[in-house]
Amino acid sequence: MNEIVKSQNVLQSFDDVERAARAMSASGFFPDSKQAAQAVVKVLAGRELGFGAFASMTGVSVIQGKPVVGANLTAAAIKQTGKYNYRVTKHTDQECEIDFFENGQCVGKSTFTMNDAKAAGLTAKDNWKKYPRNMLFARAISNGQKWYAPDVYNGVTVYTPDELGANVDEEGNIIDVKPETSISDKLWSHFCDVSDKARKLDIVVKSFERENSTKEEITAYGIELSEAIKQIESQNKENE
Predict the structure, then answer these.
(1) Considering only CA atoms, which of 219, 211, 227, 225 is closest in space to residue 123?
(2) Taking Cα atoms as reference points, which of 162, 163, 224, 213 lies closest to residue 188?
Protein backbone atom coordinates (compact mmCIF):
# COMPACT_ATOMS: atom_id res chain seq x y z
CA MET A 1 0.00 0.00 0.00
CA ASN A 2 2.96 2.36 0.53
CA GLU A 3 3.52 2.47 -3.21
CA ILE A 4 0.09 4.09 -3.73
CA VAL A 5 1.51 7.50 -2.86
CA LYS A 6 4.40 7.14 -5.29
CA SER A 7 2.80 6.12 -8.56
CA GLN A 8 -0.69 6.30 -9.97
CA ASN A 9 0.12 3.18 -12.02
CA VAL A 10 -0.19 1.03 -8.87
CA LEU A 11 -3.97 1.49 -9.05
CA GLN A 12 -4.61 -0.63 -12.10
CA SER A 13 -8.40 -0.93 -11.96
CA PHE A 14 -11.45 0.94 -10.75
CA ASP A 15 -11.68 -1.51 -7.85
CA ASP A 16 -8.15 -0.55 -6.81
CA VAL A 17 -9.04 3.14 -6.96
CA GLU A 18 -12.27 2.63 -5.04
CA ARG A 19 -10.59 0.63 -2.26
CA ALA A 20 -7.82 3.22 -1.85
CA ALA A 21 -10.28 6.13 -1.94
CA ARG A 22 -12.63 4.50 0.57
CA ALA A 23 -9.77 3.82 2.94
CA MET A 24 -8.54 7.40 2.81
CA SER A 25 -12.05 8.79 3.14
CA ALA A 26 -12.76 6.59 6.15
CA SER A 27 -9.51 7.68 7.81
CA GLY A 28 -10.97 11.10 8.60
CA PHE A 29 -7.75 12.83 7.53
CA PHE A 30 -9.41 14.49 4.52
CA PRO A 31 -12.33 16.71 5.69
CA ASP A 32 -13.31 17.70 2.13
CA SER A 33 -13.89 14.04 1.19
CA LYS A 34 -16.08 12.62 3.94
CA GLN A 35 -18.04 10.53 1.45
CA ALA A 36 -16.36 7.69 -0.40
CA ALA A 37 -17.75 8.87 -3.75
CA GLN A 38 -16.06 12.25 -3.33
CA ALA A 39 -12.76 10.55 -2.60
CA VAL A 40 -13.10 8.28 -5.63
CA VAL A 41 -13.71 11.25 -7.93
CA LYS A 42 -10.67 13.06 -6.54
CA VAL A 43 -8.42 10.04 -7.00
CA LEU A 44 -9.73 9.39 -10.53
CA ALA A 45 -9.27 13.04 -11.50
CA GLY A 46 -5.77 13.11 -10.06
CA ARG A 47 -4.87 9.84 -11.74
CA GLU A 48 -5.84 11.27 -15.13
CA LEU A 49 -3.66 14.30 -14.43
CA GLY A 50 -0.70 12.13 -13.49
CA PHE A 51 -0.84 12.15 -9.67
CA GLY A 52 -0.85 9.31 -7.19
CA ALA A 53 -3.76 8.67 -4.85
CA PHE A 54 -2.41 10.49 -1.81
CA ALA A 55 -1.32 13.55 -3.82
CA SER A 56 -4.76 13.60 -5.42
CA MET A 57 -6.51 13.53 -2.05
CA THR A 58 -4.39 16.37 -0.67
CA GLY A 59 -3.98 18.60 -3.74
CA VAL A 60 -6.73 17.90 -6.28
CA SER A 61 -10.35 19.09 -6.09
CA VAL A 62 -13.33 19.38 -8.42
CA ILE A 63 -15.20 22.69 -8.41
CA GLN A 64 -18.10 23.41 -10.76
CA GLY A 65 -17.16 20.23 -12.64
CA LYS A 66 -13.64 21.50 -13.36
CA PRO A 67 -10.34 20.01 -12.10
CA VAL A 68 -8.59 22.18 -9.53
CA VAL A 69 -4.94 21.68 -8.60
CA GLY A 70 -2.91 23.52 -6.00
CA ALA A 71 -0.03 25.69 -7.20
CA ASN A 72 2.51 23.48 -5.42
CA LEU A 73 1.39 20.40 -7.37
CA THR A 74 1.42 22.30 -10.65
CA ALA A 75 4.95 23.54 -9.94
CA ALA A 76 6.08 19.99 -9.14
CA ALA A 77 4.33 18.54 -12.20
CA ILE A 78 6.14 20.99 -14.49
CA LYS A 79 9.56 20.06 -13.14
CA GLN A 80 8.86 16.33 -13.13
CA THR A 81 8.21 16.23 -16.87
CA GLY A 82 11.90 16.53 -17.70
CA LYS A 83 10.78 18.56 -20.70
CA TYR A 84 9.65 21.72 -18.95
CA ASN A 85 11.06 23.84 -16.17
CA TYR A 86 10.56 27.26 -14.64
CA ARG A 87 12.48 29.89 -12.71
CA VAL A 88 10.99 32.59 -10.51
CA THR A 89 12.76 35.83 -11.47
CA LYS A 90 10.75 38.29 -9.39
CA HIS A 91 8.54 37.68 -6.36
CA THR A 92 7.24 40.47 -4.15
CA ASP A 93 3.95 41.47 -2.56
CA GLN A 94 3.18 43.34 -5.78
CA GLU A 95 4.37 41.08 -8.57
CA CYS A 96 5.43 37.55 -9.48
CA GLU A 97 7.41 36.90 -12.65
CA ILE A 98 8.30 33.39 -13.84
CA ASP A 99 10.40 32.32 -16.83
CA PHE A 100 9.35 29.03 -18.48
CA PHE A 101 11.71 26.65 -20.26
CA GLU A 102 11.21 23.83 -22.74
CA ASN A 103 14.15 21.49 -23.27
CA GLY A 104 16.42 24.06 -21.64
CA GLN A 105 15.32 26.98 -23.81
CA CYS A 106 13.31 29.90 -22.44
CA VAL A 107 9.96 29.92 -24.25
CA GLY A 108 8.14 32.68 -22.41
CA LYS A 109 7.41 34.62 -19.28
CA SER A 110 4.35 34.61 -17.04
CA THR A 111 3.75 37.66 -14.89
CA PHE A 112 0.92 38.41 -12.51
CA THR A 113 0.72 41.67 -10.56
CA MET A 114 -1.50 43.18 -7.93
CA ASN A 115 -2.77 45.52 -10.65
CA ASP A 116 -3.91 42.42 -12.57
CA ALA A 117 -5.54 41.12 -9.41
CA LYS A 118 -7.27 44.45 -8.84
CA ALA A 119 -8.57 44.52 -12.42
CA ALA A 120 -9.98 41.02 -11.92
CA GLY A 121 -11.69 42.02 -8.68
CA LEU A 122 -9.52 39.77 -6.49
CA THR A 123 -7.83 42.11 -4.03
CA ALA A 124 -10.84 42.35 -1.70
CA LYS A 125 -10.68 38.61 -1.00
CA ASP A 126 -9.25 37.60 2.35
CA ASN A 127 -6.59 35.28 0.93
CA TRP A 128 -5.26 38.05 -1.34
CA LYS A 129 -4.98 40.39 1.63
CA LYS A 130 -3.23 37.83 3.86
CA TYR A 131 -1.04 35.97 1.36
CA PRO A 132 -0.35 38.23 -1.65
CA ARG A 133 2.96 36.55 -2.57
CA ASN A 134 1.41 33.10 -2.49
CA MET A 135 -1.59 34.14 -4.56
CA LEU A 136 0.54 35.97 -7.14
CA PHE A 137 2.74 32.89 -7.53
CA ALA A 138 -0.30 30.64 -7.91
CA ARG A 139 -1.74 32.75 -10.73
CA ALA A 140 1.62 33.17 -12.48
CA ILE A 141 2.48 29.44 -12.37
CA SER A 142 -1.04 28.45 -13.48
CA ASN A 143 -1.08 30.86 -16.42
CA GLY A 144 2.44 29.87 -17.47
CA GLN A 145 1.58 26.18 -17.40
CA LYS A 146 -1.43 26.78 -19.65
CA TRP A 147 0.56 28.98 -22.05
CA TYR A 148 3.96 27.29 -22.23
CA ALA A 149 3.52 23.73 -20.94
CA PRO A 150 0.00 22.74 -22.02
CA ASP A 151 0.71 19.00 -22.20
CA VAL A 152 1.77 18.71 -18.56
CA TYR A 153 -1.77 17.56 -17.71
CA ASN A 154 -2.29 15.54 -20.89
CA GLY A 155 -4.22 18.36 -22.55
CA VAL A 156 -6.65 18.86 -19.65
CA THR A 157 -7.15 22.48 -18.58
CA VAL A 158 -6.78 22.77 -14.82
CA TYR A 159 -7.28 25.73 -12.51
CA THR A 160 -6.01 26.92 -9.16
CA PRO A 161 -8.64 26.99 -6.39
CA ASP A 162 -8.64 30.79 -6.42
CA GLU A 163 -9.42 30.90 -10.15
CA LEU A 164 -12.74 29.20 -9.45
CA GLY A 165 -13.63 31.36 -6.46
CA ALA A 166 -12.45 29.16 -3.60
CA ASN A 167 -10.69 30.67 -0.60
CA VAL A 168 -7.36 29.13 0.34
CA ASP A 169 -4.88 29.26 3.20
CA GLU A 170 -1.19 30.17 3.06
CA GLU A 171 -0.28 26.72 1.70
CA GLY A 172 -2.92 26.89 -1.04
CA ASN A 173 -5.27 24.42 0.67
CA ILE A 174 -8.96 25.07 0.09
CA ILE A 175 -10.79 26.38 3.15
CA ASP A 176 -14.02 27.38 1.39
CA VAL A 177 -15.09 25.85 -1.92
CA LYS A 178 -18.22 27.98 -2.30
CA PRO A 179 -17.56 30.50 -5.12
CA GLU A 180 -18.34 34.14 -4.62
CA THR A 181 -21.43 34.82 -6.69
CA SER A 182 -22.46 38.23 -5.42
CA ILE A 183 -22.13 40.73 -8.27
CA SER A 184 -22.50 44.39 -7.34
CA ASP A 185 -24.92 46.62 -9.24
CA LYS A 186 -22.01 48.84 -10.29
CA LEU A 187 -20.00 45.94 -11.75
CA TRP A 188 -23.01 44.49 -13.56
CA SER A 189 -24.00 47.91 -14.95
CA HIS A 190 -20.47 48.49 -16.24
CA PHE A 191 -20.40 45.01 -17.80
CA CYS A 192 -23.71 45.66 -19.57
CA ASP A 193 -22.40 48.99 -20.93
CA VAL A 194 -19.24 47.32 -22.27
CA SER A 195 -21.30 44.50 -23.79
CA ASP A 196 -23.63 46.97 -25.55
CA LYS A 197 -20.67 48.89 -26.94
CA ALA A 198 -19.10 45.65 -28.19
CA ARG A 199 -22.29 44.59 -29.96
CA LYS A 200 -22.47 47.97 -31.75
CA LEU A 201 -19.02 47.19 -33.14
CA ASP A 202 -20.27 43.78 -34.34
CA ILE A 203 -18.31 41.89 -31.67
CA VAL A 204 -19.97 38.61 -30.73
CA VAL A 205 -20.80 38.78 -27.01
CA LYS A 206 -21.33 35.66 -24.93
CA SER A 207 -24.53 35.48 -22.92
CA PHE A 208 -24.25 35.79 -19.13
CA GLU A 209 -26.93 35.50 -16.47
CA ARG A 210 -26.21 37.60 -13.40
CA GLU A 211 -27.47 35.07 -10.90
CA ASN A 212 -25.41 32.25 -12.41
CA SER A 213 -22.13 34.15 -12.85
CA THR A 214 -19.31 35.08 -10.48
CA LYS A 215 -17.56 38.42 -10.10
CA GLU A 216 -14.37 36.86 -11.46
CA GLU A 217 -16.12 35.59 -14.62
CA ILE A 218 -17.83 38.92 -15.30
CA THR A 219 -14.67 40.96 -14.64
CA ALA A 220 -12.42 38.74 -16.77
CA TYR A 221 -14.84 38.72 -19.72
CA GLY A 222 -15.40 42.47 -19.38
CA ILE A 223 -11.64 43.03 -19.69
CA GLU A 224 -11.56 40.75 -22.75
CA LEU A 225 -14.36 42.73 -24.41
CA SER A 226 -12.69 46.05 -23.56
CA GLU A 227 -9.46 44.91 -25.24
CA ALA A 228 -11.39 43.83 -28.35
CA ILE A 229 -13.15 47.21 -28.44
CA LYS A 230 -9.83 49.07 -28.18
CA GLN A 231 -8.38 47.08 -31.07
CA ILE A 232 -11.33 47.80 -33.37
CA GLU A 233 -11.40 51.49 -32.43
CA SER A 234 -7.68 51.73 -33.09
CA GLN A 235 -8.08 50.06 -36.49
CA ASN A 236 -10.94 52.42 -37.35
CA LYS A 237 -8.77 55.45 -36.54
CA GLU A 238 -5.96 54.15 -38.75
CA ASN A 239 -8.40 53.72 -41.63
CA GLU A 240 -9.78 57.25 -41.34
Answers:
(1) 219
(2) 213
